[in-house]
Amino acid sequence: MDQPAAQAVTSEPDSGAAPASLLVDHQAPERLVVQRGIFVGPWPTINDELYAVVKGGSQRERLSIQLNKGAEANLNTYFGRFAASYWQRWTTVTEVQVSATLNVARRARIKLLASDIAGHRRIVDSIEVTESGSFTMTAPLDKFVDGGAMWLEFAAIGGDVEISDLAWTVDAPDHVRPVAIAICTFNRADDCAQTIAALASDDTVVAAIDAVFVVDQGTDLVQDRQLYTETAAKLGDKLRYLRQPNLGGAGGFTRGLYEVSAFNEHADVILMDDDILCEPETVLRLNAFANLTVEPTLVGAQMLFLLNPDYLNVGAEEVHLHKLMHGQKVPKALRNVSMLNKRQERRVDAGYNAWWTCLIPAEVVARIGLPIPIFFQWDDVEYGIRAREAGFVTVTLPNAAVWHADFYWKDFDDWARYFSTRNSLIVGALHTELDAKALSRQFFRSISEHLVAMQYGLVYTTLKGIEDFLDGPKGLADGGIEAMAAIRKGRADYPETIKHPAATAPVQSSHLHTRRASGEPSHAKLILVKRAIDQWFGRTQHGIIGVTREDAHWWHISLFDHVVVTDASQSGVRVRQRDKAKARDLLRRTRKVLRRLRQELPAVQKDYRDALPTLTSRENWERLYAAKPPTS
């Protein structure tokens, strides 16, 4: 969750009595619904072919579809498939039943199909129906360890066919655990109200969840929206609204874990971003899966892109701690592909799941405590790593997803880079043995590229993150409020960090000439040295140069001394200008900071490890929630 500047709010750490249903386990039905047949997306922007592909005439509703005579419906789609491989590998389930109600004019053909790791399809069962009523097909989960899924295909023969109440079910466990949803928000009142309303729109999902905690850290309050008021009436006493200081995504999500675990140490929590487009069915699928895993398991939803809603961000992610790199694609996982055309047949096992939507089992909180108060960025990564070290794996469940803002529309040169730098070092220090010399070389290379690209504010941001990491865990005492305010203030001294409307940027448009980039240099290190020397001595092309986002590479921009670069958001431009004095000062600071990193890393690493139990304790978070927020 993006976190703008801290604002004054009223802290209310006492949320009152727990919803009654959250306090007890629930009696399980004879069979547990683990997936429903959905035929229409929850929003008009969503392509219905993510749910079912139809040839011929049809009329769709959310939970039903009518096929005209001769039409066919194929549910081998993103949301239509049953992720058989994941269910066989991670749960106690040995067979699955799929059933539906049919209204048949003449005849319907139904096929249950399966795939394998290579995408080869096979027919598991096939029936023909000539009378209206329900049908059930059963299939063992015995050939899917490495990959594969199951799905249905329908054909309307000689007349119309209506399909409704489609459900995949399994033998239910002895009991169903209570589950709550925790949504963290900061001044995105409209988005948050929409997300809550989406959850409340599905009666089956509302019945399945026991509480919804809305943790509001802003000043533009969700509770002031009419849509929220209307939704509150639907959710009744299941809805809990909390206000607190702006402690970032880490503080907001942790509040949900903190509250729920206080009510019931056996209740699971689904963490959910405020600004997503929510698919309510995903909540049902995550919760059902978590109730049937062999061991308590973190169960995450996948992320589809908000602006390109057919596209999957990544099938599963892992972290490369020694390089301070998270969001790394698990080998063989799909990445940035349209799910209208691709299927993730191979089972890919995640290292962690980001908290756009992720279920945290109660046992994890009881065993490892709460997240670390690092404001935002890497908090979900750290918690996933810590959980795995304690024996709890993460499963990113295919065919369960929400739509989240596309990452490549966010500019790398942002104040959030401070937290990404500082927190990656903190997480690395906690969970691996960092190589100070290797990291120094890595940082020096990236900082050098930023310097020749005239991104002085980005260099400042990176160095500030390293410096504050080296100052030790005392910098986390307030949950990140002061650090966030300080980095925003410090970046204001660097004009190229400011985004301007393209039409009114502070340059003479008639003097602006666009220059396209050539290919990436084959000897990047040599080119970097050459560009640095040319920048230092002013051997650059003069005048005002325009550079598109796709051409904004350091080796291209460093050819010039005054550049107007399109921001990644496509909502404006940044103006970069060569400044030798700033470059010299930042280079000196870089050498000093990296020398400190090489010398102090072992001791600082020990300090963070020693402080972890205190930082993640209930007492520490209770103190943060009760603290007086800043006034600006």
Automatic annotation (TrEMBL):
GO MF annotation: an example? glycosyltransferase activity
The name this protein carries in UniProt is Glycosyltransferase
- The Galactofuranosyltransferase-2 C-terminal domain is annotated at 441-626
Q: What organism is the protein native to?
A: Antrihabitans stalagmiti
- Keyword Cytoplasm tagged: no
Source superkingdom: Bacteria
Its keywords, alphabetically, are:
Coiled coil, Glycosyltransferase, Transferase
* Pathway terms, separated by semicolons: Cell wall biogenesis; cell wall polysaccharide biosynthesis
Stated family: Belongs to the glycosyltransferase 2 family.
Domain Galactofuranosyltransferase GlfT2 N-terminal residues, every copy: 59-170
Q: Which InterPro entries match?
A: GlfT2_C, GlfT2_N, Nucleotide-diphossugar_trans
- UniProt feature coiled coil, ranges: 580-607
